[in-house]
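Revision sheet: structure tokens.
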Amino acid sequence: MLDATTVDRVRPRITEHVAQRWFVRPLLSALVLGAVLLTMGQLINPGGYLSTDVGGKVATLDAMAVGGTVSPDLGYWAESADPDGSLYPMFSTTSMGGSWVNVTTLPMLYVALPFYDLGGVRLALIVPVLGAVLAALAARSLVMRLGGDRWRGAAAFWVVGLASPATIYALSIWEHTLGLALMAWGVVAALDVVHPRRPASATTRSIAVSGLLAGLAFGVAASMRQEALVYGFVVGGLLVFTLLGSGRVVAALSAGGAMAAAALAALTANSMLEVAVLGSSMRSGRSAATAEAAGSLLDSLGTRAREALTTFAGPSTASSVSAYLVAAGVALLLWLAGRRADRPDEVRLVLAGLGVVVTLEALNLVLGGLNFVPGMLAATPLAGLGLARGWAAGPRRFVTVVAVAALPLIWLTQYTGGAGPQWGGRYLLLSGLLLTVVAIVGLESESAVRVGRTVALAGLAVTVVGVSWSVVRADSFARSTSRLASRPEPVLVFSDPFIARESGPVATSHRWLAATDSGGREEALSVITAMGFHEFGYVEVVHGNDIVDFPGWKLERVDEMPLIGSDQLRISTWKTTS
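Predicted:
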């Protein structure tokens, strides 16, 4: 038998040996995580996507790869008859500098283009996967800066990498993971200014360099994600306020000035790139739209409040009073679990209540089918514990304040109307990551650690649902797209431009139009006639038995086909009577 003295002497060696395992060492962990995510991505049908936004990006990559150009021009088959593009089949396509553009970021597309050129969507997933890996590494670095050990750092790495919204967004050609990684590393750099790991060696120059890196990270992130402007503003303001509050005036001026200058330089460079390629800047226009949206707050206060609750904690896409009550309940129960985590008897009751909510939502998924989980806390439940555990003085509070202070500003400026069909609060991803890190560091007692593990497993289960939903959704839309592409009608007119956008490159390689109202339908008939066609198909989601009438055209037949879940598409075929 080993005596206590021998055990105490041997334990540090054993711990150090185990700590060298691959799941703790960052480089090996990064390689394994990247391989796992890339493999998961191969399960998803490359002809379908998590969002219509992704369809637009894939269509653009395909156009550039096929055309051998860096111009994101999708072209338009009916441009001569519809020069202003009012009938363009893909939502949010605009004419810029003679090009038909359906993208919100150029840098991400240019990084992904060589991979797409070599291996299509499947190989281009390397880019979002890289973003998820870098975000996970940033979470690990934050844990170490908040006083956590290697094990907690490894826990943060794997939770962010495999049990958070970053996992889901790594499986689509989207810029979310890259933007998240840049913002997370920006927080790391800012934290090095406010709470340096070696205070004695923190010179004015090192402080300015860290501020520069933080500003650069948020500036580049803003070229891809609009909310990066909000997070960058909050981080910069809190950084300066904290330094001034502690009497470090020179440090505040150095770090704040460097951060602002670097962010401005990055934004200017991106604007110059857009002007060079497109003839004007997309991002400045989106920023102006964001400011305008914030200015019309009073006109949409109710909508914004409801969508804020949905994206904060909503486990379902429903927009009903019961759904909002469930979202509020999820937030409250997670916060209580964090507050009572050190008291086993009390937290057991809270977790039981949370279990009831989870069971009800799981039953809803079973009966209603897979769908989006739009709320940050619903998809990243550890973040709810972080809300309760992150207010201790020091670097942990800095990170928590960044995560929380940005929320109302993002809710004020985020685009309305899309709160439901998204995963884990896609505008709030950085807050979710930061609060997850805080929870992992702040759950210290044995009872609290058990609570954290339970909640983390719930987050993993939600992520598994998300991966399954990504597979099902992509496969359903890919099959629908294939059937639509093989239709015999020479022209298809869509009642919803989002449906065509889901089809990616197929939408721009076929003669498709989109007409959302009676005026658009009349214009579509004029374009079809002007282009010399005598037959077309009208595509709409089935809502009842009424079929839209086209005066002067004869209805030949009506077909229906599955879209996704219980949704069906109706295609009515029309021929001219003249």
